[in-house]
Every structure is written in structure tokens, then in C-alpha cells.
């Protein structure tokens, strides 16, 4: 029995510096997260700027080369016109060789079609070494059809009102340059994506270290007041003037605090998952929570799950998630309102859906997008880690999803938990197959 004296009464208190440090920690987490987010966007903007600059420059270069190739083709047309109209000129061979060398230098595929629409002259058309005359004609016709779609023909006046036409395609170099910006952009996007993955992995690893260290330190700090609380429980039980039921309720809360301490100390380690009845866990926990919030807050459970519906859960951690969401809902309603918890498993889905809806003040879309960020909190003394840890527990440990399903300012918010479902009958069948 503990004597009732000021000297040996169990006591504990939270130092004001701890509150100050918690607020500093929250601001530090928010600033760190926002700085890293800004760095990510800055890298993306730089990559986008470089890609656009490269695309603009290369397109300008392609346009200039295209103009040059068109001039070479027109020069080829002028040469043909001169040769056709002056077949006896002594400079015929020299001029023809000069024109062909110009086309060969730029590797411009070109076909001259005479007034009878017959392809009589062609340059830089690829043929196989053993191609027959018929195969060559077929290849020329195919290239001619393609050229007619690419560029308008260059007319060649051959006298007496007769006109021939030169059709041409872009050189291989120009074709490469035309597609080069897109290849370059794809490579830069790939590099940016890999950099983003590396950045995200590094950020997540750093967050994990912060969370693990913070959780373990919190568990350590809770140890001393818990011991004092247990002493207070024994003190109340020993006093005949105090209702023993009060001590029993306090003991339940102390046991729960010990469980919370265990949760914090286990953060960072791989949790043990067991097949648990989802309805039983949620219902019993909501019943427990109802007694520990304002009497003006009313919980309503809408259980639509099949009997025997289970899931792979770590009970303590899963209850922690539900508690975080429900307590945030209570705060959002300022201690007055209704919370609806709906459990369902659509036939077409292999997941259990748990919706927690309040009729509180709701939040803007911007806040809904940041609600799971480390350090983000709308409460003055909030650490901004509760929902962050809840999301980590559901998604990393249970392979599910946690997100804001809907929220409207002045009307309320709905959080949705999605976890893989399992029917108890399936487990029995699997066990029987294993035993046999």
C-alpha cells in the first residue's frame, strides 16, 4: 500500500520544453519535406527546360538543312534542264558529274519523271546487288509513291511546253535529325525518372530513420509516467473512499498506454500478421473508444461483411490506424457530432473497404493532398505524424491503401482503408490441403 503523503505520492508531469520541442520538430519536418518536394520539382523543371531548348534548336537545324536540300534538288533540276535542252554541249559530262556529286554528297534520294510520267533518272535509291531490272523498277515506283507524299515536285522545263518533275525525299541524315529530339527527350525523361526513383528511395529511407528514432525515443519517454500511473491505480484501489470501478477504468487506459508504448518500440521492425476477424476487431475497438471521447460524439457501425470475413492483420497496429483516424475526426467535429464506420467487401473485389466518415469541418483539396505528409498538421500542437504512420502501417505493413475518399469544407471527411480480404473457409481448406 502507498501512503498518502505529498512526498511519496506517485507523480509525473510533462515539461513545457517538451511541448516546445514537439512544435519545433513538427515545423522542422514540414520544412524538410517541403524543401525536398521543391527540389524534386526544380529538377523536373530543369529537365523540361533542357528538353524544350534541345527540341527547338534541333527543329531549327532541321528546317535549315531541309531548305539546303531543296536548293540542291532545284540545282539538280536546272542541270537536267540544261542537259536535256543542250545535249551537244561539250561540258555535258562535267556538268552531269558535278550535279551527281552534289546529290551523292548529301545522300538525297531523287527521281526525275519525264513528260510521259516515266521515271527516267534516279539517284541514291537503294538496290540490292543482285536485283533484277523488274525488281529495280518496282523499288523505284515504291520510292516515287512515297516521295509524292513528302514534298511537292520540282518542275523542269524541257522546252516546247513540256515539263518534267523531280521528286525527292529527305536525306538519311535529315531523317535522323528529325527524330533525334524525341529520342533525346525520351532519354532525358528516363534519366529524370531514374533520378526521381533514387531521390524518392533516399527520402523514404531518411523518413524511416526519423520515424524509427522518434518512435523509439517516444516509447522510452513514456516508460517513466507509465510506472507512475500504475502506482496511482494501486493507490486508488487501496482507498476505500474511491469507487473501485474508477481504478479499473484507469487500469484499462494504462494497459492501453503500455500497448501504445509497445507499438512505438516496434516501429522499424517487421510486424507479425495473423488472420483476424475484421468486424470483431473494429467493433470492439470502437466500443472501447466511445467511452473515452466526448459523450456528444456518437459512433455508428455499419457492418456489411460476410460472417467469418478475415484479413491478415497486426491487431495492435491496425487498431492504432483506426484510432488515429477516429481521433482526428473527433477533433474535426470539436467534440460534437457523429462518426459512421462502414465495413464492406464488394463481390467483384478481393479487398475489404472500411470507410470512416465524420460530419466535421472538412478540409480543402490542398490540405487533403498534404494530410499524409510528415509534419503536416492543422492543430497547433500536432506533430503531424499520426496519419503519416497510419498510412505507412496500412500500405507498407498490410499491403493495403489509406487515402481521403472525399472531403467537403463544412460537411465532413471520409477516410477509406483498403486491405486484402480473406474468408475463413478459404483458410480452413488451405490448412486441410496442407495437412493431407
TrEMBL record:
SUPFAM superfamilies: ATPase domain of HSP90 chaperone/DNA topoisomerase II/histidine kinase. Its EC number is 2.7.13.3. It catalyses: ATP + protein L-histidine = ADP + protein N-phospho-L-histidine. Residues 217-423 form the Histidine kinase domain. GO terms for biological process: phosphorelay signal transduction system. Keywords: ATP-binding, Kinase, Membrane, Nucleotide-binding, Transferase, Transmembrane, Transmembrane helix, Two-component regulatory system. Coiled coil: none annotated. Signal peptide: none annotated. InterPro entries: HATPase_C_sf, HATPase_dom, His_kinase_dom, Sig_transdc_His_kin-like_C. It holds the Pfam family HATPase_c. The chain crosses the membrane at residues 39-57, 179-199. SMART domains: HATPase_c. It is an enzyme of class 2 (transferase). PANTHER family: C4-DICARBOXYLATE TRANSPORT SENSOR PROTEIN DCTB, SENSOR HISTIDINE KINASE. This is histidine kinase. It comes from Dyadobacter frigoris. The lineage of its organism: Bacteria, Pseudomonadati, Bacteroidota, Cytophagia, Cytophagales.
Amino acid at each position: 500500500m502507498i501512503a498518502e503523503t505529498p512526498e511519496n505520492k506517485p507523480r509525473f508531469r510533462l515539461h513545457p520544453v517538451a511541448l516546445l520541442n514537439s512544435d519545433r520538430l513538427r515545423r522542422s519536418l514540414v520544412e524538410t519535406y517541403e524543401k525536398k518536394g521543391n527540389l524534386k520539382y526544380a529538377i523536373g523543371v530543369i529537365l523540361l527546360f533542357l528538353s524544350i531548348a534541345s527540341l527547338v534548336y534541333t527543329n531549327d537545324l532541321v528546317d535549315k538543312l531541309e531548305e539546303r536540300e531543296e536548293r540542291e534538288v532545284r540545282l539538280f533540276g536546272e542541270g537536267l534542264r540544261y542537259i536535256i535542252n543542250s545535249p551537244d554541249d561539250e561540258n555535258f559530262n562535267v556538268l552531269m558529274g558535278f550535279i551527281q556529286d552534289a546529290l551523292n554528297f548529301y545522300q538525297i534520294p531523287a527521281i526525275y519523271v519525264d513528260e510521259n510520267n516515266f521515271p527516267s533518272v534516279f539517284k541514291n535509291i537503294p538496290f540490292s546487288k543482285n536485283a533484277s531490272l523488274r525488281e529495280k523498277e518496282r523499288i523505284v515506283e515504291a520510292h516515287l509513291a512515297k516521295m509524292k507524299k513528302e514534298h511537292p515536285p520540282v518542275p523542269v522545263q524541257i522546252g516546247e511546253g513540256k515539263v518534267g518533275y523531280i521528286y525527292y525525299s529527305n536525306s538519311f541524315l535529315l531523317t535522323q535529325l528529325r527524330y533525334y529530339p524525341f529520342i533525346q527527350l525520351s532519354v532525358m525523361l528516363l534519366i529524370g525518372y531514374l533520378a526521381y526513383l533514387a531521390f524518392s528511395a533516399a527520402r523514404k529511407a531518411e523518413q524511416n530513420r526519423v520515424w524509427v528514432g522518434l518512435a523509439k525515443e517516444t516509447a522510452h519517454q513514456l516508460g517513466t509516467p507509465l510506472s507512475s500511473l500504475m502506482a496511482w491505480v494501486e493507490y486508488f484501489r487501496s482507498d476505500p473512499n474511491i469507487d473501485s470501478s474508477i481504478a479499473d477504468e484507469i487500469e484499462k487506459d494504462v494497459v492501453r498506454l503500455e500497448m501504445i508504448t509497445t507499438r512505438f518500440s516496434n516501429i522499424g521492425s517487421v510486424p507479425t500478421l495473423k488472420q483476424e476477424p475484421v468486424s470483431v476487431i473494429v467493433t470492439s475497438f470502437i466500443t472501447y473508444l466511445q467511452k473515452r471521447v466526448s459523450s456528444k460524439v456518437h459512433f455508428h457501425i455499419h457492418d456489411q461483411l460476410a460472417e467469418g470475413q478475415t484479413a491478415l492483420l497486426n491487431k495492435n497496429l491496425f487498431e492504432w490506424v483506426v484510432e488515429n483516424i477516429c481521433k482526428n475526426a473527433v477533433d474535426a467535429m470539436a467534440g460534437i457530432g457523429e462518426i459512421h464506420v462502414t465495413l464492406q467487401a464488394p463481390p467483384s473485389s478481393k479487398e475489404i473497404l472500411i470507410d470512416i466518415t465524420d460530419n466535421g469541418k472538412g478540409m480543402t483539396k490542398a490540405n487533403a493532398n498534404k494530410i499524409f505528409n510528415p509534419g503536416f498538421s492543422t492543430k497547433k500542437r500536432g506533430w503531424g505524424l499520426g496519419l503519416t504512420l497510419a498510412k505507412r502501417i496500412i500500405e507498407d505493413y498490410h499491403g493495403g491503401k489509406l487515402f481521403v475518399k472525399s472531403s467537403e469544407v463544412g460537411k465532413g471527411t471520409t477516410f477509406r482503408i483498403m486491405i486484402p480480404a480473406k474468408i475463413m473457409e478459404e483458410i480452413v481448406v488451405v490448412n486441410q490441403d496442407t495437412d493431407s
